[in-house]
Amino acid sequence: MPTYIVNVRDRAGKAYKEKVEALSSEQARNLLKSKYPTIGKAKKAGLDLDLSGIQMRFTNVSIKDKAVFSRQFAVMINAGVAIVRCLGVLSEQCANPKLKGALTSISSKVQEGSSLSDAMKKHPECFDQLYVSMVEAGEVGGVLDEVLNRISKLLEDMARLGNQVKSAMAYPVAVGLLAVGTFVAMTLFLIPIFADIFQSMNVELPALTQFMMTLSSLMRSWKVLIPIVGISGTVFIVLQYYKTPVGRVQIDGFLLKMPLFGELNEKSVVARFCRVFGTLTRSGVPILNCLDIVRDTAGNQVIANAIEAAKREIQQGGMLSLALQQEKVFPPLAIQMISIGEETGELDAMMMKVADFYEDEVEQALKALTSIIEPLMMVLVAVLVGTILLAMYLPMFKMFDALA
User: Fold this and answer.
1) pLDDT category of residue 49 using cuts at 50, 70 and 90
2) Which of 4, 56, 105, 135 is the residue whose CA sits 20 to 30 A from 123?
């Protein structure tokens, strides 16, 4: 933790310089407020290497970090503990340095009279628009502890869905990397050994063996850089195109329609939309603000455009279900359930049921996808390794036939 030198004055007006360890200059000044009535500028002492600052720069606040914080914050608020004290206790025990620094700063702002939501707005890297809006609604309605519980539940559900996707794809990706790595290693190191043997015997090589020897020679020369540069350039161009409005719409649209994974992406995005929208409306956030937030957190530009069009329709007096139906990007079942929620006046509850349904659908789709991909990956390993072995042993079989 870096050391700061802070200019201070006591009650008699005498100036001093105090050394204090803190995460930031603002925190250093706040630590001395109870001791001195006047606090001046704070400067970092000497040329100390700010390791904590470097660590904070490269540390991300995960969904799990925010979910744990929200759950603990809600319990303390419900127990009657003051917000400032809650933030102080939670910042002390927080293991994430970036979140720890944000909580310390938020606590200082709240002590100065700022609202909790306004203080959180200054730290978008830790608390996004969704989080801040729900906290603001909780403050206005006087149900901050209840809203924090809903936030933690929402974040836990989102983390669970994300972990399901990661765990389902971990095995196929690992097997795929292993297969490619084995193929490359055998091509680079095993084939040259056999190539020298075959050349010394002056044996006519089969087409497969000649192809693998040529490929091995190519991979050990500078020419291997040509496909690598080509692939890297293509990826770079696609990423740059994705940053454009047209490219983002086209690529996100393809992700919703692509074979095998398109339906999974669609269900995942719909589940996220319904979960976030239902949680926001249940927490008292106005519906137009809800649509702004879910549009920005949709994760897919096609869905975000549909939500924006639905917002314009609602501003003109239309219904959410009809507006979403016109965009033709949401599944018919989701539209019908949202329509029933609007008719019965229980839109938030129906949104939660839709989210539960599609999260289950995502889970089942992941299991089905994994059951398909796993044997395909094993076949890929067998084909890659078998191709090399066959290419090496075919000349030997030919030699044995000649000797017989």
Assistant:
1) very low
2) 4
